Amino acid sequence: MRGQDPRRATVAPALRTFLATEAGSAVVLLVATLAALVWANSPWRDAYTALWHAPAGVFLGDARLELDLQHWVNDLAMAVFFAVVGLEINREVTRGELRDPRAVAVPALGAVGGLVVPVLIFLAFNAGTDAAHGWGVVMSTDTAFLVGVLALFGPRCPDRLRLFLLTLAIVDDIGAIAAMAVFYTDDVDARALAAAGVLVVVLVVLRRRGVWRLAPYVAVGLALWVAVLASGVHATIAGVLVGLLVPTSLPHERRREAVAQHARRFLSEGGADREHAAELAGRAAVPTGDRLQRALHPWSAYVVVPLFGLANAGVRLDPATLADAFSSRLTIGVAVALVVGNAVGITGAATLALRLGLGDLPGRVRWGHLMGGAVLAGIGFTISLFIAQLAFDDPVLLEHAKIGVLAGSLVAAVAGSLLLRWLGERLSLCTPPQLPPTLPPLPWRQVEQPVAPRPAD
User: I need a labelling partner for 237 at 20 to 30 A (CA). Which of 84, 132, 156, 323 fits?
Assistant: First the structure.
């Protein structure tokens, strides 16, 4: 297309692939979650607990690293998930939608509202109790389930709404990850943390020097994971750092030209050496982060996240447990904060951003979409359960928090879907959204009106 920026043109297919993979992941994650609930409430529930608490480790001489299976999933496998999140953030900031301040302003401020208001609602229910430490449970939106629900609407749901809510979820994840790193870290080993800092510097140097091979980043990333685990900071932060620091900008044009040169030599001369040179040239011409995401994302979506759901969603749902949970301020606070907090916080903050003129709703996204999407953003499954594991050592509090997450996420999914469909049928999808009466012009936005030219004599 004439006038199209080729650097931006490569983003859309990658983003479509990301959204499609997340939508497929939601189905597998739902099956794994239901399997965990059925297993934990069956006559074999003791086997469920025994399996995930079985020890496993790596031993080399006197050195050993031993965790139970649940912690291997939560600490190591989920580092892959957070690396994918970091890679997506990195790519969108480098050459995607997050480069445009006006495009990101409304979903970003909506995400801030979706972070702050749920926490305030949760603390209103639990302030002064032992459960108050779990405020971080209500901060995150589950991207896989969110995109999966939107996929059910097919073409009725504009692609720009998916992108809008993905941007919101990315900013939301940044806040949740930051809270997890700062507020849910216990004792810190200074030497291990210093070693992790050195490894982060190594990643920065690799990026600055334009190293395009994956092996150095993977090797340093594994070492960084071990160092962060030993430091006392949650090891999944290593995945985030790797995702954010692997280069995602498009390589120089000369690397693409080298692909054609090596391909011509291979076609004219043949041979294993020419084939290998053409293969290496092709890899060097693709951003390192894109290649890493292509390798990791299917494993994260279809193995890691469902495995996390299977390992952590097994909650007993017998009548006595449910009665106890739904009389708990913790369970009620989590559920209400996820559903009401996100609906009010996202809609309110996004509306404020629009009225202040900081950004616009993209494409065919309308007010009905925004409101329905805000309710859907209350699906806080993966990272919510993850933070619950970090926040609560008491098994009763942990159980109540998990039930609150499951209940709130279910209500948000159903209510958001119904609201999106109902509003989509009743509000015009072909005309721009009608804002409420605008606020008076702000002092810093007042500009001198141009003077009309005088007619010629």
Answer: 132
Angle at Cα 363 formed by Cα 360 and Cα 367, nearest 5°? 65
Predicted model pTM: 0.75
Enumerate the H helices of 41-158 as residue ranges. Answer: 45-52, 69-71, 78-95, 101-126, 143-151
- Please report where in the chains the tokens 């495995």 appear, as a residue: 307
CA distances from 128 to 132, 195, 358, 399 (A): 7, 38, 38, 20
| Cβ–Cβ < 8 Å for 405, 338 | yes
Two tokens, residue 287: 């951003």
Nearest one of 297, 290, 245, 244 to 84, comparing CA atoms: 297
Residue 379 CB coordination number (10 Å)? 30
Which amino acid would we find at residue 48?
Answer: Y
Tens of pLDDT, residue by residue over 443-455, are: 334 444 444 454 5
Among candidate residues 261, 286, 306, the one with its CA nearest the CA of residue 32: 306
Q: How far is CA 393 from the centre of its chain?
A: 25
Which residues in the chain come in under a pLDDT of 70? 1-16, 19, 97-98, 153-159, 362-365, 423-457
What residue type is 248 in one-letter code?
T
DSSP 421-438: HHHHHHS-SSS---PPSP
**For the chain, how many residues are written?**
457
Write down the residue that tokens 């999106």 correspond to.
420
Domains of the chain: 9-53+66-185+234-251+286-432 (1.20.1530.10)
The SS3 call for residue 318 is: coil
- CA neighbours closer than 13 Å in the CB half-sphere of residue 341: 32
Does the CA dihedral 173-175-176-181 come out positive or negative?
positive
247, 252, 254, 260: CA torsion to nearest 10: 60
What whole-number distance in Å separates Cα of residue 7 and Cα of residue 3?
12
Question: Measuring CA to CA, which residue among 425, 276, 441 is closest to residue 357?
Answer: 441
Strand partners, 43: none
Q: If you search the block for the tokens 């011409």, which residue do you land on?
A: 285
